[in-house]
Design brief:
The structure holds two protein chains of two kinds.
Chain A lengths: L2 E4 L38 E6 L17 H4 L14 H8 L9 E5 L4 E6 L4 H4 L7 H10 L2 E6 L9 E6 L7 E9 L4 E10 L2 E10 L4 E10 L4 E10 L4 E8 L4 E10 L5 E10 L4 E10 L5 E10 L5 E10 L7 E10 L5 E10 L6 E9 L3 H8 L5 H17 L5 H16 L13
Parallel strand pairs in A: 5-7, 6-8, 7-9, 8-10, 9-11, 10-12, 11-13, 12-14, 13-15, 14-16, 15-17, 16-18, 17-19, 18-20
Antiparallel strand pairs in A: 1-19, 2-20, 3-6, 4-5
Helix pairs in contact in A: 5-6, 6-7
Chain B lengths: L8 E11 L6 E12 L3 E5 L6 H9 L4 E10 L2 E2 L5 H7 L1 E4 L6 E5 H13 L5 H14 L10 E2 L5 H15 L3 E5 L7 H17 L3 E6 L12 E6 L2 E6 L1 H10 L2 H17 L1
Parallel strand pairs in B: 3-10, 3-11, 6-9, 9-10
Antiparallel strand pairs in B: 1-2, 1-4, 4-5, 7-8, 11-12
Helix pairs in contact in B: 5-6
Classes of the chains: A alpha/beta, B alpha/beta.
Bound molecules: adenosine-5'-triphosphate (ATP) and magnesium ion.
């Protein structure tokens, strides 16, 4: 048995910082009974920190393959699929080949090259393998990859932007993107998904030694869109990789983000925000695999849910293998439930197989507005409606500001604010402080 | 001489307040009577758990507390009928014992939003920025605080300065300062006290200073001192009463109150 911890295991070691977070413990979690013992679904507030654990073994390896059939056809009962509405993702899982493409509008600064490689290219062979059937189908159907190359030591003067727009239609769009950033280069790449589409896209970022890479993936899809995808990052020696995932639109979005380190001293920051409205399903699954020494990972995902049937899933797996001494990792997921009838699942999972780490911890909380924060703002004359807006805005801004691209941040905050404005009956909700 | 442009009166009459629900309901305030006028400074002193913060929060309208009897009026208006924000706009201000952290909301945005709400219109940007700067200067707060999130990661002393900064900028008619002195070192205590005194000298404010210790009263001289024990005022006097408490502590009052409670139980 490894030292396997989920959010349900220990509520006694909450760091004091938790008290400052947005949640009133125990309120408003909209979760059903856990479906497996390891499920920490909608725990009011849980935090766990590990200093020097006593590892006792290693968990099963995760299945990866480029062959879809290795995974079988998911029924919805599998651990990796059990949160996903199978009917709605079925069009992607059916895996019908198609030539449909998203419309690409690109902005490529000096030092960046956009090319295409075929399926038999060594680059493709060397990519991290798919972790589920959908990802394997995607790798196959994409039949090659679009490649963004940033020359080594390049310092881009602006972000690389790939605006990927869906054009509707029933055909599934299959995509594979590889972002290769040379040693000591510094680059931000923005994937901006909009429009109507059924899209499954693989994205692999290879950050060379000492590179500093930011990947922003915005899911601002039109209503009805379905988006599945596996994101991989291979973080080089002393490289830093930052990923910011912003999921706002679409009917169903299911993204799996994996991180591995190819040399010591790497750092990965995984940030995410999601905002699920009525009937939207937004699922973010993370897997950080620490197998080399002295690497750092830091995960912060925040989500808000409003409306009947709004549904979010966050799975945060971090594994520290015996070889990964000197690892430092922390992950945090916060969900803000704005109305009844919404449900957020949150499952942090930390597996530690060496005692020689700097630190490891996680926290997860799902709740309503914190009455104390609202009271504080209102006690300064701010009306309850404005106070709520400030709090929710602040909740998201905390993560969005990590994008580091002002125009995009402003646009996303604007979208979020418009969504809040559309909140049905925000005025009529019971505001206890008023 | 103080100049009073407008005289405000906060009147608390026979205020009864409970916390908790059902079987856990507990009466904390048991008939508080108190009147605070503009230009007056009242000190409320009492032992831990006597209900001082409960009084402060009840006046401000915190949802945790249930008023079961009595009245609170400001210039004759029923404060208890107002929402929390209406109370603030009517001129009440509470500097909290434990100010709340609000992640993602910057101090400058917060202050401006609050000032806009209180004044009914957005303050002119130029003068506003200047006002905030100079008040922060006087409270010896680093301008960098303006860009930080409200109370997030502030030290105890910084939180208290931030509370007084808000009082300075929002210019309430009546300010309730709940243990603003606790957790302050001598320098911070002086700086914060000077902030309060500046406001008093400017004239129109009434101050209800809640404290456990007499220390702050050396800087802020009260006109009246109220001894608060077991949910009500048990003795009142001038500044000299604070000296008596300094020397003798609350023991005598607490004993009296315990005996009275025992007698009440015996009668029942
Ligand atoms: N939610 C609650 N449930 C039960 N008891 C409560 C609750 N809130 C406050 N109390 C109790 O009410 C009493 C008065 O508390 P209050 O905070 O008003 O005291 P205080 O005079 O401000 O104390 P201190 O000097 O420590 O600040 C205390 O006994 C406290 O435990
Ligand atoms: Mg108190």
């Amino acid at each position: 048995m490894s030292d396997q911890i989920t959010g349900t295991t220990d509520l006694t070691t909450q760091p004091s910082t938790l008290a400052a977070e947005l949640f009133a413990p125990g309120v408003g979690a909209q979760a059903g009974p856990p479906t497996t013992p390891a499920d920490s679904t909608a725990v009011p507030a849980g935090a766990h920190s590990h200093g020097g654990p006593a590892p006792t073994g290693s968990p099963a390896e995760r299945l990866t393959s480029t062959d879809p059939d290795v995974f079988g056809v998911p029924t919805g009962r599998e651990e990796t699929w059990r949160f996903t509405p199978m009917k709605r993702i079925r069009p992607l899982l059916d895996g019908a080949a198609s030539d449909a493409r998203l419309t690409w509008t690109t902005d490529l600064p000096e030092g960046v090259e956009l090319t295409r490689v075929e399926a038999d290219d060594p680059l493709i062979k060397g990519l991290p393998e798919p972790v589920d059937r959908l990802a394997a189908l995607t790798r196959q159907r994409a039949n090659g990859a679009d490649v963004v190359r940033v020359a080594k030591e390049a310092q881009l003067d602006r972000p690389v932007t790939l605006a990927l727009t869906g054009t509707g239609g029933d055909d599934v769009v299959w995509g594979q993107l590889v972002v290769e950033v040379g040693a000591f280069a510094k680059a931000t790449v923005v994937l901006d998904h909009t429009g109507p589409a059924k899209y499954s896209g693989g994205v692999t970022v290879i950050a060379g030694d000492g590179a500093q890479v930011t990947l922003v993936s915005v899911q601002d899809w039109a209503p009805g869109a379905v988006h599945g995808g596996q994101y991989d990052a291979v973080v080089g020696r002393d490289a830093t990789f930052k990923q910011v995932v912003v999921t706002l639109g679409g009917d169903l979005v299911r993204l799996v983000s994996n991180v591995q380190y190819s040399g010591p001293g790497g750092r990965a920051d995984l940030f995410g925000v999601y905002f699920s409205d009525e009937t939207q399903h937004q699922e973010h699954r993370l897997w950080v695999d620490h197998a080399v020494p002295n690497c750092t990972s830091n995960v912060l995902y925040k989500g808000a849910l409003q409306g009947e049937g709004a549904r979010t899933v966050w799975i945060g797996d971090v594994r520290i293998r015996p070889t990964a001494t000197g690892t430092e990792t922390y992950e945090l997921n916060r969900n803000l439930v704005l109305t009844d009838g919404a449900r957020a699942d949150s499952v942090p999972n930390l597996e530690i197989e060496t005692g020689e780490i700097v630190g490891a911890g996680h926290a997860s909380a799902t709740g309503r507005f914190d009455d104390e924060q609202l009271f504080y703002l209102c006690s300064r004359g701010i009306d309850a409606e404005t106070a709520r807006r400030l709090v929710v805005r602040g909740f998201f801004a905390d993560v969005v500001q990590h994008i580091g691209v002002d125009a995009l941040q402003d646009r996303l905050m604007g979208t979020i604010e418009a969504r809040l404005g559309a909140l049905p009956g925000l005025d009529d909700q019971p505001v206890e402080v008023a | 001489m103080r100049e009073r442009e407008e005289v405000s009166v906060l009147e608390i009459r026979d205020l009864h307040v409970t916390v908790g629900e059902g079987d856990d309901t507990k009466e904390i305030l048991r008939g508080v009577d108190l009147t605070v006028r503009s230009g007056e400074t009242h000190a409320i002193m009492g032992p831990n758990g006597s209900g001082k913060s409960t009084l402060a929060y009840s006046i401000a309208g915190h949802p945790k507390y249930t008023v079961t009897g009595g009245t609170v009026t400001l210039d004759g208006e029923d404060v208890l009928a107002m929402t929390v924000d209406e109370r603030a706009r009517a001129g009440l201000f509470l500097a909290m014992q434990y100010p709340v952290e609000v992640p993602g909301v910057s101090v400058s945005n917060f202050l401006r939003t609050a000032a806009t709400a209180i004044k009914g219109e957005a303050p002119k940007l130029r003068t506003w920025v200047k006002d905030v700067k100079s008040e922060m200067d006087l409270l010896e707060m680093d301008p960098a605080f303006a860009e930080r999130n409200v109370n997030e990661g502030f030290s105890g002393g910084e939180k208290k300065r931030h509370e007084i900064l808000q009082m300075r900028l929002l210019k309430p008619a009546i300010a309730i300062l709940d243990e603003t002195d606790s957790g302050l070192d001598v320098d911070a205590l002086r700086i914060v006290s000077e902030g309060v005194n500046r406001t008093r000298e400017e004239g129109e404010i009434g101050v209800l200073l809640i404290t456990h210790y007499t220390r702050i009263l050396r800087y802020i001289k009260p006109d009246f001192v109220h001894v608060f024990v077991a949910g009500k005022v048990v003795e009142e006097g001038g500044a000299e009463l604070a000296d008596k408490l300094e020397n003798e502590g609350y023991a005598a009052y607490v004993k009296d109150s315990n005996e009275a409670a025992a007698a009440e139980v015996a009668r029942a």
